[in-house]
Specification:
4-stranded antiparallel sheet; disordered C terminus
Length: about 750
């Protein structure tokens, strides 16, 4: 039957009636009244009585598991392990290696068979489950979650298998999965009650659309209530039902899964107060590894993370510790891992122009040495500084609520996954180049001096989420290109993501503070991507940097949401922070900015302008280059920054004084064009407020009795970026370091 459906032939007679019924489901008209719904049910008793299971699950508290260890090797291994489970192990339950949709499964067909034979089909596990599953049942398996159909008899078994696989492989990672049978009619018309005349239908919705409880489910009432009802009362409602059950089970509520084991008692590894701990001081150590630097003590959990990270990075020289004895006491095989760098290189192979841009000298990097092994190696390309980039899609939840069918869910998931992954590769290829390591002095990496590497770390790409570590001097440019390419690639795949967009001149001035007239785009993507970027020293604790970067991402997404609500802006946003010392910031980013970078009462002055739109980030980089080329004495740059706190007029006078003393007339003119005229134009006349700009309030802010006029400046952020800017904009692939161009 499966082969016949794939090639368009007639299916076997035994199952032909079932296939015809399902095909009939797609052709049913949407009933406009409750009576029409009752008639439809009476005419389609097979579709009413027949059911199919739907399962949803995945990892939870991911960052708690990934970032509990302070070392990049263990963080990388934890991330790689979760990615492997989501992208290979779970699709392997469904024989994913037989479908072109699951590329990584096709790369490791023997491992997929091993997952089923040596684990899933064991008598003490879930014998017989894989025989009931085929790859076409998977709707999506990306972003750390899986949504899939399955036979009703196996829906709870599949949910248990998903949870158990995460626990079996990671020992401690949290996971959750739920499943529920649904009628075939519900796949098209949403949840239906039995008897069906008890189902709230379109007439009921028209009467109660403005009730707050109804709005919680269907959203704010619009002019087209019928279309709004159809969008919610569809397959989308089944997914929302599972999401609710997922959160309930995740919280320990077992009311709706009484036949399953409880999630209230997660795995625990008790540590004796007088026993030796592992190197992370989390759990009892079980073995010392003499062959690794510093002879670390490993717990079961840490050993799995370390070997997974080494295999993902193809660090074959340091994996000898994982010998037969280690396998015996650990009782676990790491399985197969595909490095993100491998996927990146495969992508470049399909795009020769990008490959030539990234590696113009066609350097041949050694297979087991070409991946960055530590933050020091990434920072080696940028004078010891690295950048953390977290990116996440905007308006995803809002768009998903309009998806009506399982097929549309599948297409949407694949489009977003492809756009996200390829956008990362485009950004890296455009702004980075292979780097030759030099000056390394640590015992564990000094032997790598002279090796050529890819100077970046992809922690994860899942769904619309991205976590990167890159050289600091390229961070903002990479984040900007990543967000722009995400939109472009989505629209290239499907024109339905495009939406006409028109702004008034006044709205453009508020949205984009840099040359707003140049930012107008007639067509915009309904989905966009925001990013948080932290530029910091290579020895900054990763858990601390991760927390700050996450705060910056939330700030950027909040700004994007505000611009969309107030002015209809659909594009991406970026918030960034340059932290040159760990002691610079000891609180929340928002608190630091409010208490340390805002002062004055009337007017209020802000010594920062972040977050920025993508157009503004491009302008900020151009302004930073112009500032460098103007040959401003560095002492004067810092003096202007320090004098900002003395008030609006004092800062303006000091800037004018130092600007007038510049000897390079061409540089002065460019600085005036790229900074003064671009950022500091007055709102009510032809003058400018350099180095300040006026913050245009929203209508709600303007009407507030507490409203205070506010001025902001990009000068402090320009000075923070100054050490990472180089006058030469050409790409560098030198032995010393990459060019310091942001």
């Amino acid at each position: 039957m499966r082969e016949a459906l794939q090639v368009g032939k007639q299916v076997p007679e035994k199952v032909r009636s079932y296939v015809e019924q399902v095909q009939k489901l797609d052709k049913l008209d949407y009933p406009k009244t409750l009576e029409a719904l009752k008639t439809l049910q009476a005419d389609n008793q097979t579709l009413w009585n027949a059911k199919i299971g739907l399962a949803y699950g995945g990892a939870t508290k991911i960052k708690q598991y990934v970032f509990e260890a302070p070392k990049l090797q263990d963080i990388r291994g934890a991330s790689a392990l979760l990615d492997r489970i989501n992208l290979i192990d779970l699709p392997a339950f469904f024989h994913g290696e037989e479908s072109e949709r699951f590329e990584q499964c096709q790369q490791f067909p023997e491992y997929c068979q091993q997952v089923r034979d040596d684990w899933l089909e064991l008598e003490q596990n879930f014998q017989g489950l894989s025989q009931a599953l085929i790859p076409e049942l998977i709707i999506y398996s990306t972003g750390g979650n899986i949504l899939a159909f399955c036979p009703v008899a196996y829906v709870q078994v599949l949910a248990d298998a998903i949870e158990k696989r995460y626990t079996h492989e990671t020992l401690i990672a949290n996971s959750c999965a739920v499943g529920q049978p649904f009628r075939f009619l519900e796949l098209k018309f949403g949840l239906l009650k039995n008897p069906i005349d008890q189902t709230p239908w379109l007439e009921w919705y028209r009467e109660n659309a403005n009730h707050y409880l109804v709005e919680a489910s269907f959203g704010k009432a619009t002019e087209n209530l019928t279309n709004q009802f159809k969008e919610r009362k569809s397959f989308n409602e089944l997914v929302r039902q599972l999401a609710v059950r997922f959160n309930q089970r995740r919280s320990g509520d077992d009311r709706f899964s009484s036949e399953r084991s409880s999630r209230r008692y997660p795995p625990m590894f008790e540590a004796h107060p007088y026993g030796r701990r592992d190197t992370n001081e989390k759990r009892s150590a079980v073995r010392q590894i003499d062959s690794l630097p510093n002879q670390p003590w490993f717990s079961d959990v840490e050993a799995r993370k370390r070997i997974s990270g080494q295999k993902a990075k193809r660090d074959n020289q340091n994996t000898s510790w994982y010998d037969a004895n280690t396998r015996h006491w650990l009782g676990w095989e790491p399985g197969e891992f595909q490095s993100w760098v491998t996927r990146y290189e495969r992508f470049l192979g399909k795009h020769p122009a990008l490959s030539a841009q990234y590696n113009p000298q066609n350097r041949q990097l050694q297979e087991n040495k070409k991946e960055a092994r530590s933050l020091r190696e990434i920072g080696n390309a940028s004078q010891g500084f690295v950048a953390y980039i977290y990116a996440d899609g905007n308006s995803m939840g809002q768009y998903i609520q309009t998806i009506k069918t399982a097929e549309a869910y599948k297409a949407f998931s694949e489009a977003v996954s492809i756009a996200t992954e390829h956008a990362v590769y485009y950004a890296l290829a455009e702004h980075l180049a292979p780097h030759r390591l030099h000056g390394l002095e640590d015992p564990d990496n000094k032997h790598r001096n002279g090796d050529w590497i890819h100077p970046f770390e992809i922690l994860t790409i899942g769904g619309d989420d991205v976590m990167l570590m890159v050289p600091a001097n390229k961070a903002l440019a990479i984040a900007k290109t990543l967000s722009e390419q995400f939109e472009n690639l989505l629209m290239a795949q499907n024109s339905e993501f495009s939406e006409p967009q028109q702004f008034s001149r006044e709205s453009l001035k508020v949205i984009h503070r840099y040359h707003p007239a140049n930012a107008a785009k007639p067509i915009a993507c309904q989905l966009s991507m925001s990013a948080g970027v932290l530029i910091t020293a290579q020895d900054t604790p990763i858990y601390y940097a991760e927390d700050l970067t996450n705060q910056l991402l939330k700030s950027a997404k909040k700004h994007a949401k505000k611009l969309k609500k107030e002015y209809g802006y659909l594009g991406g946003t970026i918030d960034f922070l340059v932290m040159k010392a760990v002691t610079m910031l000891s609180s929340q980013v928002s608190e630091f900015r409010k208490s340390g970078l805002e002062f004055g009462e009337r007017p209020k002055l802000k010594l920062y302008s972040a977050p920025y739109t993508l157009h503004e980030i491009g302008g900020l980089l151009e302004t930073a280059e112009a500032l460098k080329q103007a040959e401003f004495p560095r002492s004067q740059l810092y003096q202007i920054r320090d004098l900002l706190q003395r008030g609006k007029r004092t800062a303006m006078l000091n800037y004018r004084y130092f600007w007038s003393r510049l000897s390079n007339k061409d540089a002065k003119a460019e600085l005036k064009e790229k900074f003064e005229d671009a950022w500091c134009q007055a709102k009510t006349n032809d003058g400018n407020l350099v180095p300040w700009s006026f913050v245009t309030p929203t209508e709600e802010e303007r009407r507030s009795p507490d409203y205070v006029p506010t001025y902001e400046t990009i000068w402090r952020e320009l000075i923070d970026l100054y050490p990472f800017i180089d006058e030469v904009t050409a790409r560098s692939e030198s032995e010393t370091s990459a060019s310091l161009e942001v």
